[in-house]
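INTERNAL AUDIT FORM
Audit reference: QA-55
Scope: verify that the stored structure record matches its stored sequence.
Auditor: D.O.
Record contents follow.
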Amino acid sequence: MPYPDDRHLEHLPSGVGRAATECGDAVEIRLWTSGDRIRRVEFEIHGCQNTLAAAAAAADLARQRTLVEALAVDAAAVQAAAVGLAPGREHVAELAVAALRAAAREALAHRHEPWRRLYRPDRG
């Protein structure tokens, strides 16, 4: 059953994904959707400019795609799209993709029950 008044939940992201490495780099990607199409993407990073470049590229690649299309974004596409990604830093592209895919999976899982967004562990 749809939530009686979804407009009060619109400020909450449809999906949140996080990924981190052992060295301390971390990416969090938040997706807002309309139906199955991603209409807004935000991200936060903890890391260097390479992590920033990869997260920005992943966000750009996801914007205006469907959730299923976002799941198909891979590290090679992020590397190709990333401006300023230094050679030998491919692991940050994989990190950004992991966060994007986690966010897309969560959005897909909650698309018919948006009230579940209220129960994310990060909401305290």
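Auditor finding: record pair retrieved intact. The helical segments are 49-62, 67-71, 75-81, 90-110.
Action required: none
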